[in-house]
Design a protein that fits this description.
It contains 7 helices and 7 strands; from the N terminus they run H-H-E-H-E-H-E-E-H-E-E-H-E-H. The protein is an alpha/beta fold. Helix 1 crosses helix 2, helix 3 runs parallel beside helix 4 and helix 3 crosses helix 7. The protein starts with a helix and ends with a helix.
Length: about 240
């Protein structure tokens, strides 16, 4: 018996070998991406490239897996790497404290990935990531909006052309069509976004340059991340 024995009982030896030989890149290690990365590690994926430019702050503690008082101020990618190495020291983990976007896309080599997970926040970054993955013929799954949601049962996996309700999916659908991207697997929610309570924080507490923040809880982005991880595992073991 080893640490993946229970998984092997469900997936089989051949599938576990595929996972061991796979390299998955996770872009964005926040509320969604952190849970994706950990679930992939605990499922036996042999190599992970973890990409996030941000550091862990106190406002991440309510929902992000790698956010602890002991990791405050650490780069998210490095905190994720340390935790995953503690889960399985044999996993090949690359931590990159970088912002992914059109200006940095040239620094990433998609031919080395077997799968890409998009869990980043910006539309510009998402579109650049999707475009690069599809040009390299690498499977990608993209997370749509999880902010201002309270019902984790409303998540669905669908092609971007089949999405509804989600404002981010609406924008991505339009922008993908402009770029000739006909298909994109996404996770989205059919729950209407809830309004934020403006009295919950003061203007002084807002990050510089921000006029508002989306609300988020522990049990919505985490579910989104686990659903995405499950989809990646299924695709890799087909």
């Amino acid at each position: 018996m080893d640490q993946y024995s229970r998984t092997a009982l469900l997936l089989g030896a051949e599938a576990m070998e595929k996972l061991k030989n796979a390299t998955v890149a996770v872009f964005g290690l926040g509320g969604v991406g952190g849970y994706v990365a950990e679930a992939l590690a605990r499922s036996g994926v042999g190599a992970l490239e973890l990409v996030d430019h941000d550091t862990i702050s106190v406002t991440n503690l309510n929902r992000q897996l790698f956010a602890l008082h002991s990791t405050l101020g650490m780069p998210k990618a490095e905190a994720a790497k340390q935790r995953i190495r503690d889960i399985d020291p044999n996993i090949r983990v690359t931590a990159r404290q970088e912002f992914y976007g059109p200006d940095t896309a040239k620094d990433f080599y998609f031919s080395q990935y077997d799968y890409v997970v998009d869990a980043i926040d910006t539309v510009t970054g998402k579109l650049a990531l999707v475009t690069a993955a599809q040009l390299a013929n690498v499977p990608i799954i993209s997370s749509m909006g999880t902010g201002n949601k309270l019902d984790p049962t409303r998540f669905q996996i669908a092609d971007i052309t089949k999405t509804s309700v989600c404002p981010l999916a609406r924008i991505m659908r339009k922008e993908c069509a402009k770029r000739g991207i006909r298909h994109l697997k996404v996770l989205f929610s059919t729950e209407d976004p809830l309004p934020s309570d403006p009295s919950a924080i003061t203007d002084e507490e807002l990050p510089e340059g921000r006029r508002a923040l989306p609300g988020s809880v522990a049990f919505v982005p985490s579910v989104a991340g686990l659903i995405i991880a499950g989809e990646v595992i299924r695709d890799l073991t087909k």
